[in-house]
Every structure is written in C-alpha cells, then in structure tokens.
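user: can you give me the structure for this one chain? tokens are fine.
assistant: on it. calling the predictor now.
[tool input]
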Amino acid sequence: MNLKKLSFPLIITSLLSSSCSGGGNPYSLDLEYKPNFKILWLTDIHYGPEADTKSQEEFAHLDKIIKDAEQPDLIIITGDSFRQANKSHVNEFFSFIDSYGIKWAFTFGNHDQETFQDSPDFISEEIAKCKNKVYYDNPKDNIYGKANYYINLKSGGKTIYRLYLTDSNADFNGGYDVIHEDQLKHMEQIAENNKDSAVNLVFIHIPLFQFQSAWDGYKLGLYQGQGQNNETCCIPYIDNGAYQVFKKIGIKACFAGHDHLNYADIDYKGEMILSYGLKANDLDYHDDAICGYKIISLPEDSNSFGLKDIQMHSLLMK
C-alpha cells in the first residue's frame, strides 16, 4: 500500500541559506561544494526501546563518531534510524543529530515507519522542525515511498556532484520491496532535466539486487573492491530493473545499508560502485568489531571518484 494516499496534506522542504530549493523544483536542494567535500555516512542506528536503558551510552557513541569524522560537510543517514520507536525516540534522535550545526540528509529504511502506520508523515514533520536538515517530502505527490529527492553540490553555479536520496521501501510478501517504477521514472526525469557533467551518486537503504552478484564476482576476483560481507545480501524479492535505470542515468556509485554485517565496496563490472555502509552501533544484531561509519570524500576532479574515496572507520562501543 502506498502510505502517501493515506497522508494529510503536507509539504516539507529545506529552505536554508546554504540549502535551498534549486531552480524552482522542490525536489532539488542545493549545497555549496567545497574542495574534497566530506560526507559522514551513518546507517542502521535502530534507535528505539532497546536503547531505553542505555540512551546516554548510545548518544555518547554517536557523538564520538561525529567528532571522530572531523567536521564533515554533510551527514547522510541511509535508513533504519529507528526500530519499534515511539514519538519520543524520534524527537530525541533528531534533536541530537541537529545539535551539531552540520547539514544532514535522511532517507528511510524498512523499519523506520513500522510504528507510525497511523501517522505516516510524523517523521517527515519532525525533520521539518530541524534547522540543519537537507530534506524534502511531499506526501501528495503520488510517488511511491517517502522523500525521493536530490541534492546538488554546486561550485560557481555548476553542479559538481548530484546526490539522489531514494526510498527503497520496506517489506513485501516475506521479503524486501523494490524501488518502484514511478520512483525510477522520477529519477529518469531528474536526469533528463539536468543534462550536465555532474557525477551522480545514490543513497538507499535496501541494496540493489546486483549487490549479491557483485560480492560473488569479487570473491572470484572478477571485480575490484574492498571490505567484507559476512552475511547473505538481503536484496529485493525481484530484480525489477533498478540497476539498469541507475546505469542509464549515470549513477557512479550506489550506497546502501540494511545488512549489519556487510561493509564491502565493489566496482561492479566497471560500471558502478556498489557500497555497503557500516552499521553505526550495537542496537539490533551486530558485530562489535565492525560498528562505526564510513567517510565518502568527493574530490575536485569528480571524474576521479572511486573506491579510494570510500573509507570505513570502526569504533568500538565503550
């Protein structure tokens, strides 16, 4: 079911001095590109009832991550920030993230909405109250999922990088859903409207179907890569052509979370980097040795972006 059809009228956007709607298109948000722009990538925090007896410890760990990242230009959170969360959990988490004065972007995972079926816009409404968010959601746009938007990193009026944040949706018939056709067409239209030399990156939660093929090929020595996968890739229930659409519109790298024990970055067929995030903390299933974050560095020569620009940083919880 498309939750948007149950939503109350709501339009949420980021209208900040350094983050504003680009060219009149509400899905397009602009940020200033700085040389070697640094993204702190967080995923699968799972804040909720499991943290109730140790919330100070959890936030101390996230604080350590943010400080260890040494002044990132943007934080991107790729889903499952919440697990069985109530409204207080959501408020606490967003207040914490927003308190650093660092711009941050958010996309949904399969668990974020599970306790908000009766108030599907609540998370977006809370994000809208935050000063430093870079985010857009229009529940009445009839595009499947939540918050299918993009960020232009600009220098001198030119877009150097374009970051798509796309809802990979949730569960489906005992498996995991796909990025739906209307979402993919939305991305194709964005690309059609922005025929420029920008390097395109996409951030989702559930990995594309091809993440498993990439890992299998990497183990056989077919593809270059780095990192390790320690569990089967939990991919969508079918291959619905999302990868081919991403390839068509020039996506150079796809960043996903979801699988807490996987953190490989693989240059799949020399066409697209398929990269797993590093689970941030110890909530839900995890391996203490591989909790932490990744840094994505965006070089001035955008065409040189590659595996070398994705670095993992493990931080043990204390």
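assistant: here you go. Confidence is low (pLDDT under 50) at residues 1-19. The CA atoms of residues 25 and 190 lie 10 Å apart.
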